[in-house]
Design a protein that fits this description.
Elements: E1 10-14, H1 20-30, H2 37-42, E2 48-55, E3 58-69, E4 77-78, E5 81-82, E6 84-92
Antiparallel strand pairs: 1-2, 2-3, 3-6, 4-5
């Protein structure tokens, strides 16, 4: 147990196939919608950002984002680089 005056230890850990069941279980408890298997498969792709939040050794939250082009109607190319943004898909604790 954490001492009353000591800071809580919160850690974000990457999501991989070995913890996908934790992500599914948290999403079932936290959100009123059910995500498809495709959603969970996409979380493992390189352009996704998916993390589990741990308080000590207890998994207490999840955050998922995807990378997408910056703006749909605007020019999103600067030099030879396409500008991107992160779109937060889920955040739950």
């Amino acid at each position: 147990m954490t001492e009353p005056n000591s800071p809580a230890r919160v850690e974000l850990r990457a999501v991989d196939a070995s913890v996908m069941l934790k992500v599914r279980n948290l999403n079932t408890v936290l959100f009123p919608v059910r995500y498809t298997g495709t959603f969970y498969k996409c979380l493992l792709q390189d352009d996704q950002f998916a993390r589990l939040a741990y308080y000590g050794s207890v998994c207490v939250g999840t955050v998922t984002c995807r990378k997408q082009p910056l703006g749909f109607a605007e020019s999103n190319v600067v030099g030879q680089h396409t500008m991107c943004e992160m779109y937060m898909m889920t955040l739950g604790v």
